[in-house]
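Subject: Predicted fold for F-box domain-containing protein, 248 residues

User T.R. writes:
Posting the sequence so we have a shared reference for the thread.
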Amino acid sequence: IFFRVTMSCISDTDYSSTAAGSDSTAAGPGGAVHGTQGLCRSRSPATLLRLPVEQLCEILRFLETPRDLDVLGAVNRGLRRMADDDRRWAAICRRRWADWLVKPAVPPALPPREAYFWAEADGQRMDLTMRELCGMQSWVFEMGPEVLLRDEWPFRADGRYYSPQFLHFDLQWRFVAQADSEGKQHLMVQVGSFPPLLAIRLSNWGWQLCNGYVRFTAHLWNPDEAPAGLCNPALETPCHITEWDDGA
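User M.O. replies:
I've generated the structure tokens; pasting them so everyone works from the same file.
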């Protein structure tokens, strides 16, 4: 209840007193005003800054979304500093990215708040990178309604497509650009002479490659199984796919 009242005060921009009789709340003994509206008008935003640290931390613990923090920060400069606190935004990033298949490769110099919005923008990107294609250990291969197999490291950084369970001969993969019916260019993946595969971004920030016949869906690896020189995208370290060791 205390949190709801406090947030109501924060989001109410009218802190001035109203004319007698216009407030729906009633005055109690000693002239105290009861009710959320009266409490909001009887206090300034700076009230939060005067709270004991323990109470303030308990209140801010409930601010779990960027919108919550934006509402808090819009009140005054003191609350803006609290809303922009790196630890609070780092916690929001961890919650947001926890279930993503591919963790965003956020530039390391960005503070957590900027990193959050950078990742949200990058999540709209539809052009698959070589790092994302070759950095996925496992791709589930489907033809029609059937799941045929799960390939381990099928897309190699040297341009080879390796699928001993399905194809018993060497193939090359490459990126190709093709225009759709509206003339918009799409970056696609072509394996051998088969029809190119369109890259589709999934809700977990993973990828799916599909054409009219087959579909590949990316699955996350175990970090301990990564080939030498290739990093798990979930780790906040650079990935040097040019150092791939094919013998690994």
